[in-house]
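Hi there,

I know you've been waiting on this one. I reran it after we fixed the sequence typo, so this is the corrected version. Both the input and the resulting structure follow.
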Amino acid sequence: MEQGTSISELSMTGTRDLQPDNVPAKTVTDGYEKLAELMSLKPETAIFRRFQTLIVTNLLRLQAELQDMEHELAEIRSDDAQSQDAIRKGYRYDFRSMRDWKETGDSLQYDLLVAIGEKLAEYNTALSQALTSSKAARPEAREVRFLRDWLARPSLGNDFLNDIERCTWEDANDPDFLTLFPRTIQKDVFTSFLNGALLDVYHRLWGHKRK
């Protein structure tokens, strides 16, 4: 990298001239370390799989488990309501007695409610992550080609991926890719900068002429 060249400048340069041989070499690295360096210097190459099928499968699993827990809770509540034990019978009105009775007696309902709370937290986290993933932008075809070319070239990625990891950026996964730095964001940043610079020049020239 030339002295004084910033990562943002490299990023904007890369959007105009996306060729593997133009990637600046900061240090001598290899494997994933070298790939991480590439992605940090040229953000448009930060392309990852979203694993959409696995995300949905995980959500279906959590949903099914919560469905079962909901049904089990209904049965326990029914049993407690029909119990001859006055304390258990009053669980429907008093969470405190349910909690306190757990210390000295039997409170399946309280234990299950705690477990449901933990499962709901896991489920809602998974839902939030799924929504975030679904909104992530897809990379452009030329950016994916660039990354594949970089990985394959002996002087660059040197085809370092092994075993099943070699499948990560295969053609079959194209619909599953997301990019951390969409080109639209890069364009917006550059456009904002350009517009601001042009406006400054305009105001200086126009203001000078009016004096």
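Quick highlight: The chain has a mean pLDDT of 80.

Best,
R. S.
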